[in-house]
């Protein structure tokens, strides 16, 4: 019985992971962010050539809105999994606050499948 439960757990885990990130049409914007205590997301780094990088989002930018909904007070994991990620080719609108810029900046990005490669060793 334990073996059957273990196999079932592994199968469900694999299906969940496949559905979330292994899906053929799954996409993202190429942002690695850090959640602030208030829920806003500070961009830590970008995927080179990803939608956010190409659009001009920079490390240090603070994402204040995703598709018009404020990030303040939101759950970080929910924002990433349900609002930033999605079907490749679909749009997402980010409003960001950038140090030294008075008004918020708005970026309309197209999610895309991202290929992240490890740096080559020399």
Automatic annotation (TrEMBL):
Q: Name one GO molecular function term.
A: endopeptidase activity
Q: Which residues form the signal peptide?
A: 1-19
Which terms are listed as keywords in the entry? Answer: Signal
The record's section on Pfam families has: PDZ_6
Q: From the Swiss-Prot or TrEMBL record, give the protein name.
A: PDZ domain-containing protein
Any idea where the PDZ domain is?
27-80
- Organism whose genome encodes this protein: Oryzomonas japonica
Offer a single GO CC term for the protein: outer membrane-bounded periplasmic space
